[in-house]
Amino acid sequence: MKVYRNKKSQHEIMRTYDKLLTLWDVEMEETDIDTTYGRTHIIVCGNKANPPLVLFHGVGDDSALMWIYNAKYLSKYYRIYAIDTLGGPGKSVPGELYNKDFDDICWIDQILDELELPKAYFAGVSHGGYLVQAYTLDRPERVIKGISISGAVPGRKKKEGMPVMLKIFLPEALFPSKKNVKKLITKLCGENSAVFLDNEDIMEHYTYLLRGFNNMAMGYHKVRYFTDEEIDRIRDKIVYLVGREDPFEKLGGEEALRKYRMNVTFYENAGHGLNHEKAEEINKKIVEVFEETVNSFYN
Question: Which of 63, 106, 179, 189 is least surrounded by Cβ atoms within 10 Å, i.e. has the fewest?
Answer without folding.
Answer: 179
